[in-house]
Amino acid sequence: MPSEDAPSLRTRRLRIIESGESASEPPNAFALAVRAGLRSDPKTLPCRYFYDEQGSRLFEQICDLPEYYLTRTEDSILLDHAHTMVAGWIDAPVMVELGSGSSSKTRRLILAALQTYRSLQYVPIDVSKTILEESAEALVEEFPRLQVTGFAANYRDALAGVVERFDRPKLFVFLGSSLGNYEPDQAVDLLSLIARSMDPSDRLLLGTDLDKDPKILEAAYDDAQGVTARFNLNLLERINRELGGNFAVERFEHQARYRNDLHRVEMHLVSREDQEVVIPGAGLTVKFSEGESIHSENSHKYNPAILDELGNRSGFIEEDAWTDADHRFRVQRWRSRSGQSSHSRTEV
Ligand SMILES: C[S@@+](CC[C@H](N)C(=O)[O-])C[C@H]1O[C@@H](n2cnc3c(N)ncnc32)[C@H](O)[C@@H]1O
């Protein structure tokens, strides 16, 4: 049975910091993004807005689907190599995770770090505050020598806060092939931003999905149970909930298409008929013709040569890399070629 002061001890090991308003995240950012995306040709919506509370829960279900090999495969690589991945410092580095979600795979790294070092400061970053809080609470409960400082913020704002607060060696962690949501130039921008946040003793652990048979890829993003379809359609439901839209989601169809030329799986929401949708919170009335799509997500797939080029352009040098027996997924440990990364500003 827990002692009476257990909750306050736990509270002392857990802190959540919210970014609040900032130059890169105005309060009506979602409305502005919806307005811009649905007025463009072809229509688009940024995939970062998938992750409201409902979207984050659906993503957790996706991770357990038989077709979604990504989570299982990356987890097996972390299980096999976690101790090597976290090694190399005298005292534990601060573990900073971008897009931490439920932090479920990160537990492998946290456990290995706590077996290697006396204690650990873990800094998860996620725009989805609910999932961040829930996973942070579960982690401090599970690991008594763990301190958690979560940032409920976008990558850019949170990284600035992390560098300001933690003047110690860091291990940055970016899993789940979340990098794949970015077009190559945007990926270089984000990686460059990470590289510029790093000191020579810091490292980045980057998990990326590898290119493979299109049938395997398309099934991973269009499962038989229809969970990914619900995840994609939740974007329209979120517009209804938060911006007063009147999308009838049954009038849209989820599609996942592999683009061989661009090495990526695209997710689309395709209008089943000619229709008009009103979104008061975005000051928008938008017309759809039958078959017209909203492009909602890219998931780029990689090979070692593409990764090498991305790393080079962003100011990184590869130190080590691990893959599974079937070469489905790759986790690499990179160090920054300090001060040499190029950087231009896009929304991350
Ligand atoms: C594909 S999920 C991956 C979750 C987990 N890392 C994994 O590997 O299973 C992406 C996560 O990143 C978060 N996210 C997406 N874009 C973000 C951004 N620009 N800034 C901060 N968090 C973001 C989402 O809320 C979500 O939890």
Report on this model:
The chain is an alpha/beta fold. It folds into 2 domains: 7-18 and 55-213 and 302-336, Rossmann fold; 29-49 and 220-300, no CATH class. 37% of the residues lie in helices and 25% in strands. The chain has 11 helices and 14 strands. The strands form 3 sheets. The protein has an 8-stranded mixed β-sheet, with helices on both faces. Strands 2-12-9-8 form a 4-stranded mixed β-sheet. It has a two-stranded antiparallel ribbon with strand order 10-11. Strand 13 (316-323) and strand 14 form a beta hairpin. The protein is globular and about 65 Å long. Bound molecules: S-adenosylmethionine (SAM). The site of S-adenosylmethionine has 20 residues, from helix 3.
Full CATH superfamily name of the largest domain = Vaccinia Virus protein VP39
Question: In total, how many beta strands?
Answer: 14
Helix and strand content put the structural class at: alpha/beta
Strand order of the largest sheet: 1-5-4-3-6-7-14-13
Give me the strand/helix succession. Answer: HEHEHHEHEHEHEHEHHEEEEEHEE
In this entry the ligands are: S-adenosylmethionine
Mean pLDDT: 93
Q: In the CATH hierarchy, what is the class of the largest domain?
A: Alpha Beta
Helix content class: 25-40%
Distance between the termini: 44 Å
Number of domains: 2
Quickly give the CATH architecture of the largest domain. 3-Layer(aba) Sandwich
And the CATH topology of the largest domain?
Rossmann fold
